Amino acid sequence: MTPLLFIEQLLNGLQFGVMLFLMSAGLTLVFGVMGLINLAHGSLYMIGAFAAAAVAAATGSFILALMASLAAAALAGALIELTIIRRLYDRDHLDQVLATFALILIFSEGTRWLFGSFPLFLDVPAALAGPVTLPGGIEYPTYRLTIIVIGFLVAAGMFALINRTRIGIRIRAGEADREMIAALGVDIAKLYTFVFALGAALAGFAGALVGAIQSVQVGMGEPVLILAFVVIVIGGIGSIKGAFVGALLVGLTDTMGRFLLPQVFALFMEPSAAVSIGSALASMLIYILMAGVLVMRPRGLYGVS
Amino acid sequence: MSRETYLNIATLAVLAGVPLWAWMADEPFTITLATRAVIFALAGVGLNLALGLGGLVSLGHAAFFGIGGYAMGILASHAQSYTPLIEVPFVIEGTKSMIVIWLVAILASALAALAIGVLSLRTSGVYFIMITLAFGQMIYYFAISWPAYGGEDGLSIYLRNDFPGVNTLMPMQFFGLCFAILCLVLVGMNLLQKSAFGLALSAARQNETRVLSVGMEPYKLRLVAFVISGAITGLAGALFADLNRFVSPTMLSWQMSGEIMIFIIIGGVGRLFGPVIGAMIFILLEHVLGGLSEFWHVYLGALLLGIVLFAKGGVIGALAGREKAHD
């Protein structure tokens, strides 16, 4: 194992982590403010990716594709919030799980009906296609590096939005005491729609960015959704900071585990067995991490008890 | 007798009657559909103990369903290839005996439920949902990346396993076996609901503080319920794998957890026969809508949404009225 490869894998882990943050931020806000568990968040991720792939195919512009992903996911988010989700806020979690599971079925099959079962492809824009040489002579794909930078920018933007703006104050107030801020004259229904659409837009944006690395297909959202759950359980539900730390932790643990564990097992095992045991264990590593965090802190790293 | 009791008897009559008719009319496919419904009902009855009675919204029950399935798959695959399961420190052979397979499936899924339950039950509410989901996924990914038993492709078993005195390859006889198990479990569940344990568990769902204050521990009650619940779902998984003579990671997937939950919701949460009616309707929908359109999940989704938003209590709630207050 060379140090160059190690650093490349670290960067991959970081890129995976910031993507997970884009997914988890919306999920954790929606839960923190509205008390809603939204399984359909993965569908919004998928909608963003499909919108981007369709627009990129039609116009050839990656920037337009990204904007389409933001708009389509935000629109879909606002639409389901207005028609369905808002009926679920004061229901119990079981109802929320089932209704949003029903939404997944509808969105997934609807997308399959519209676009077919074959994966679509979204090309990395030409300007970002090649590798870039980092200090120390590391060659790394420009596109992945851009994703990392975008991820950190969005994270900074979210912190600023939550901590520095009027809307952020309202969101935090909504987390603390829903009835009180409604009584103070804030239009809570509008705030909810905004928060939901914002989370949806971030998920759709993540879908479009990842869609250019992987293929765009039905069902792409659910594995990421479950990872996002792991992230916010680790970080503490409702906390943006927790989502950020948790996302990086999960991204790095998963990537480095898949990279390092087979090599560690190879030190004292025959190679084929080391690869199969190492990769099987690596696929479980983040869940073991989650279990560990739960034993120490049942409410997550930054959760309030 | 209450209307719910009549409804329950009618449900059992339909569930047994349809395959009997199909047997006379020589329609083995219908018998297989009914067997699927019975097995799904059993899985649902298992989850209903945790979900309905215990109030534990577990979105990871596919883990137990799949572990039961793999218990069957692993034992039977070793038996059909005549290779021992392990050789050191002592030899364990595979088996084609259903009774042994069921016991192993029950034990394995109960142990898994114990391990998952000990950790997950430290939390509650939405954390519990997400954690059970995450542990379910952990086992799913483990099954996919573990190559010894088929990995992503799953495991095929050539012949259905043996039960003394029954020709399990005859659809009607296998149906009878599954139906008998379902009835036994339903009787057991009925007794359990009325037992001191069942009442305490139900009380812990309704008012945790009061249960604590009379000196019982909700954590222990829930853990026991979760383990029994996982074991029943695991048994259903072993039967399901035997029905298909195939087991694959799909049985462990979280969509499976969602489907088991759907059976309960369609039928009625916390009702003894809720999952039974729900599984029957689900199989019927799958068959009828699946024949109409390739995209039948859209209709299933819409129906589910309708039930959740407008018809709480499911079919039993609609037909037999709300549950009587227990006083």
Order of helix and strand elements from N to C terminus of chain A: HHHHEEHHHHHHH
Backbone structural class of chain A: mainly alpha
Q: What is the top-level CATH class of chain B?
A: Mainly Alpha
Largest sheet of chain B, in brief, is: 2 strands, antiparallel
Shape of chain B: globular
Return the structural class of chain B.
mainly alpha
Number-wise, the strands of chain A total 2
> What is the rounded distance between the termini of chain A?
43 Å
The whole-angstrom Rg of chain B is 20 Å
Share of β-strand residues of chain B: under 5%
* Overall domain count of chain A: 1
How many β-strand runs of chain B? 2
Please tell me the overall pLDDT of chain A. Answer: 89
What oligomeric state do these chains adopt?
A: heterodimer
The number of helices of chain A is: 11
Transmembrane segments (chain B): 7-25, 31-51, 58-79, 99-119, 126-149, 169-192, 223-240, 260-285, 297-320
Main location (chain B): membrane
Subcellular location (chain B): Cell membrane
Membrane topology (chain B): Multi-pass membrane protein
